[in-house]
Amino acid sequence: MRSTFLPLALPVSLVFLLAACGHEEAAQTTIRPAMVVQPQPSAQAMDSYPGEVRARYEPDLAFRIGGKVSKRLVEEGERVKANQPLAELDPQDVRLQLEATRAQVAAAEANLSLVRSERDRYKTLMDRQMVSRSQYDNSENLYRAGVARLKQIKAEFDVSSNQAGYAVLRAPQDGVVAKRAVEVGQVVSAGQTVFTLATDGEREVLISLPEQGFGRFKIGQPVTVELWSQPDQRFAGRIRELSPSADPKSRTFAARVAFTGGKVPAELGQSARVFMQADSVIALSVPLSALSAENGASYVWRVQPDNTLKRTPVRIGAFGEKTVPVLEGLNPTDWVIAAGVHVLHEGQQVRPVDRSNRVVNLAAKE
To answer: Are the beta carbons of 38 and 334 closer than 8 angstroms?
Structure first.
């Protein structure tokens, strides 16, 4: 009976073995997803400076006349519109000056009327040869002086009228009150800063640069900016302004960095960090999980445009906390596998995805 069973069992076993081989081949041809990244500028090859997002234009607002602040109509951090009243001075002195000038205008008009009548009378008498030429000339001079005096007083009246309007400080354009420097009851002089307005529009990053090596910073130098609210994204920028003198307390030089990559979601007062190249060598970096080594030689798996893998030797620098600098072997436009590199092999086809599990079309990015 055993001899009858063995011939029957052998073909059945072969069938199962062939089926298993078929499943193995199907499993091998399955295209697995693989997370890919592009090399980034190495943090070890860049200097970073903390900064604060500021407005491109920050005018200091002040009254054009002196006086006592009677009203403060806005608070620090409040958004204001163009021509909106911000503060007022006590108008009593300005009004009294305006009334005094108005009275002087009335007196000058009355005086002009008088000297005009005198001049006309002397002209008539001179035509009749009843007064001398010198007496007429004297009346003519008095008339001209009266005209000039009235013109002068009217100009002073216009100035007083303008000063009455200067008692109200208004916003020159839309923006945010970045700083307040006075309180109600405080006496201010003409031109003394009352508010600092951060106008709407462009945003910049204000940083402080150290004295050592200050000469290597140039206006127009390219930089990258990272906002604390978006730590995984960097924005292109450039140094727009460098202070010619150091701060007497911190001994640092103020610099302003402008964004060059279009609209950036940067809000006033946000913290930021500006990265600048430390030297002429631009090193790239990849995540530690992307690096493999064999017999002391380091390599990464680079993804080809047809989504196949190529083992790429690299020369690396000192390991960082999360990344490792790549000194040779990669270009900024390359894509490398970022995780699971120990199970990959040469020529393997993968489906590239980013950190958000979105498919990356490498052929379209070439």
So the answer is: yes
Q: How far apart are CA 315 and CA 2, in angstroms?
A: 65
Question: Judging by DSSP bridges, how do beta strands 32-37 and 350-353 pair with one another?
Answer: parallel
pLDDT tens per residue across span 90-133: 888 778 788 888 888 899 899 889 888 888 888 888 888 887 88
The answer on pLDDT for 59 being more than 70 is yes
Cα separation, 355 vs 361, in Å, equals 14
Chain segment 169-181, per-residue pLDDT in tens: 999 999 999 999 9
Q: Which residues contact 97 (CB under 8 A, 6 or more apart)?
A: 160, 163
Residues 6 or more apart whose CB falls under 8 angstroms from that of 207 comprise 49, 50, 51, 254, 255, 256, 257, 274
Whether the pLDDT of residue 273 is over 80: the answer is yes
62 — pLDDT class (breaks 50, 70, 90): very high
pLDDT at 14 exceeding the cut of 80: no
Q: List the single range of 14-23, 111-120, 308-317 with lowest mean pLDDT.
A: 14-23
Q: What is the mean pLDDT of the chain?
A: 84
Torsion sign over Cα 219, 220, 222, 225? positive
User: Which 8-state DSSP code applies to residue 308?
Assistant: B
Q: What is the DSSP letter of 319?
A: -
274 Cβ neighbours under 8 A, 6+ residues apart: 48, 49, 51, 205, 207, 223, 224, 225, 226, 237, 257
| Mode of pairing for the β-strands spanning 323-328 and 193-199 | unpaired
Distance (Å, whole) CA 239 – CA 206: 10
The dihedral through the CA atoms of 160, 162, 165, 168 has a sign that is negative
Q: Give the end-to-end CA distance of the chain in Å, rounded to a whole number.
A: 69
CA distance 310 to 225: 33
**Domains, in order of start, for the chain:** 33-43+282-353 (2.40.420.20), 49-55+202-277 (2.40.30.170), 61-90+168-197 (2.40.50.100), 91-166 (1.10.287.470)
